[in-house]
């Protein structure tokens, strides 16, 4: 019943948007010559088609040509001197927008900050200089299978720390940072909210409870099937599954973040008037309401799109006190380092983590003497050791060096040695303390 109510409301809102568009379509369309507009995106077809059709109803003289490009291919195309012939770039790619803006690839955008604040609390969503604008935001956290949690008599996790509990052992799915596009940002949400060093220690402890996923759909797939009770995810994956009748809910842990996707007008757009009209439509109330459709399930960045807020939809601007000011620029620069470090600290050593962390947790519970308690505490520090300091993680010059394959290889080899030594010392301490 809840699902039908949401879909009916979304449909009504969509009709209202279409009605508004139709009233002004004849007047606005007359100002645009017949043209084919090229929009580069990595959004799925079920999303782009709705925007394409709604825009073309409003501007019947303009045909929207969708060119689907993933992050690297989009950058190669749009980074050309003429922008590859594209008019608009519209995609969830933190890395590309800043790098392309620095190359002068975009035109300046002017927006109404009364309804498009460009910020979520103290977190910047849009480019402060106006080179690109947030078009939607997505929440990061975990999808949970409510039935599987109930079967295991487990509560819904409320914090990232809850996921390290032995109660969730074998019931979590985590994505490999180098294989699943959204995961480096998701992990940096933990690192920025918990602190770089404590965040990595926590992630390795959570990984001891988990299986690894090598594609973006695997965590949700494992949760849908009940093979996992919890999967690291972006909220629109969970919302889509729930809309299709799956017993899935999205949990936003305390101090998580909503991360933006953007839209930009290309500096050398062949059809600048039509391109600006498309950008304006995506950012309009009519366009933003389309994001709420169950087949899309993204969060508008426009305040009046939440008036009223549909049932089952979280308004990020209403829960901003529970979030923290995520730094998207820092996440962009950290991406390569996080991918490399995840490989050597987590993905390559899952068996080791599954042995070490349960030993530490058991030792902490059973310790009775000061020596045993001290040994368990030191073992925890050594197990959670991260061979890249917080200062290095905030040093943009150091992070830039990860673009070099030679530096990446050398650094990874050094990290493997340091991690092996630290975790070996943790095992030795536990053995001497009688942990088994």
What Rg do the Cα atoms give?
Answer: 24 Å
Output the CATH homologous superfamily of one domain: Periplasmic binding protein-like II
Please, how many helices?
17
State the name of the first-level CATH class of one domain.
Alpha Beta
Terminal-residue CA separation? 51 Å
What's the rounded overall pLDDT mean?
91
Task: Give the tally of β-strands.
Answer: 11
Structural class: alpha/beta
Q: How much β-strand is present in the residues?
A: 5-15%
The proportion of residues forming helix, as a percent range, comes to 40-55%
Shape: globular
- The CATH architecture designation of one domain is 3-Layer(aba) Sandwich
Biggest beta sheet summary? 9 strands, mixed
Topology (elements, then pairings):
Layout lengths: L1 H28 L5 E7 L3 H14 L3 E7 L2 H8 L9 E4 L2 H9 L16 E2 L2 E2 L8 E13 H6 L20 E4 L7 H12 L1 H12 L2 E4 L4 H8 L4 E5 H9 L4 E4 L6 E8 L6 H12 L1 H6 L37 H18 L4 H17 L3 H14 L6 H4 L2 H5 L4 H28 L4
Question: What does the model show?
Answer:
The chain is of the alpha/beta class. Among the domains are: 2-137 and 259-322, Periplasmic binding protein-like II (D-Maltodextrin-Binding Protein, domain 2); 346-436, no CATH class. The chain has helices at 2-29, 45-58, 71-78, 94-102, 146-151, 183-194, 196-207, 218-225, 235-243, 272-283, 285-290, 328-345, 350-366, 370-383, 390-393, 396-400, 405-432; strands at residues 35-41, 62-68, 88-91, 119-120, 123-124, 133-145, 172-175, 210-213, 230-234, 248-251, 258-265. Strands 1, 2, 3, 6, 7, 8, 9, 10 and 11 form a nine-stranded mixed β-sheet that branches. α12 (328-345) packs across α17. It is globular, with a radius of gyration of 24 Å. It starts with a helix and ends with a helix. Mean pLDDT is 91; it is low at 1-27.
